[in-house]
Amino acid sequence: MELDFLFSNKFRYFCCKNNAMNIDWLNGIPIAITVSDCEGNIIEMNDASAKVFEKYGGRELIGDKLENYHNLHSIAIMERLLSEGESTNVYTIEKNGQKKMIFQTAWKAGLIEFSLVIPMEMPHYIRG
Description:
Layout: H1 3-6, H2 9-17, E1 31-37, E2 42-45, H3 47-52, H4 72-84, E3 88-95, E4 98-107, E5 110-118
Antiparallel strand pairs: 1-2, 1-5, 3-4, 4-5
């Protein structure tokens, strides 16, 4: 697809005709997103997050405390993120043969965690 197509009327027509502007993109991406309030209560999960935490109850975790599912070290990190405000905690893990990047950040009313599967080996580029 040429880049010009993205900015064309033809593309806008395609999106409207195919209802692309009304797609629930939050649940259509392969990134687990879990949101908590400032008290550490899970308040939202997208479909990918519910699937990741399915063995713990999936969406039934909404309303539970994050601390119920984390060790003391992780709880201390969450408390630091909340106290510092716009702080982040980013790392990679390997679990069940998959490498994942975990990105945790504070937002105005709590914490958000993004978890996405990444290749075991991947290029790194320095731009600009």
